[in-house]
What does this fold into?
Amino acid sequence: MLMDLQRNVPTTATTDASRVTRIRRVLWGTLALNLFVCALKAVLGGLTGSVALLADSVHSLFDSVSNIVGLTATSIASRPADADHPYGHQKVEVVAALIIGLLIILGMVELGRHAVAGWMEGRVPEIEPWMLATVVLGMVINIGVSTWERRVGKQLDSEILTADAAHTASDAFATLAVLVGLILTMLGVPAADLLAAAVVVAMVGFAGFKIIRRALLVLVDTSCIEPEAVIKLTRDIAGLRSCHNVRSRGMDGHVHLDLHVTFEPSMSLHDAGEGMLKLKRRIREAFPNVRDIVIQLEPHLPAFLDD
It folds into this structure.
């Protein structure tokens, strides 16, 4: 007998709509700030001839592209479950995060191309002190945006905001490397600009790798909950003899869990159902991210326990 104990999700349609609205508001704000920072770095890179600054402006451009991808993805992910997508459309956010990661890797290749071209041409940037303050401004904006996105992403369990926050944070650290390179160049170390560009390339690549890895773990249905942690919740439920075949998959805020249980053969179906409802409540309390719970009730026979 199969008993589907689906979780009644506490969020209403209005709450879901509010979540999407907040995510989109953050993405729009981030997009505007990223475009500003990108333009700032591009202008300064053109004025100074700094390979690192020009490379960093490309990085910021990909930040803006990722925001546009995120805005498109959240519109699709917010759609309710339907016949073709009974588990909902939330994984669209994960796909978007994967695209962002790939864009970051593409940006890394572009940054590397700029750095190699600058090295071959022997470019030496011409830096003015006021330009350093402008670079610091761009870095401060990136740090603020990343912190904002990460905080809201955690509150709303948004993969797209979390991924974009990591991307923007890498931009801030990259800008710090550029700033150090510019200062050393002013102090008479012309190779510092190229070294800074190399650091930017490495940091961008690492950020892209982390985002891609996280997205792929969700898309290939990596387990989200340790089976033993679920089994422990069953040990003092009256009549429950075993819990096995515990499986979980999904993403933050949308975990799906299924498991098999057996009860004392002498118990009535009603009492076994009450035990499963108790177990379901415990799972919800222990794992708030679980969206759906499916419990299969089986006869307490050794043959079934081996399945």
Q: What stands out?
A: The mean pLDDT is 80. The radius of gyration is 25 Å.
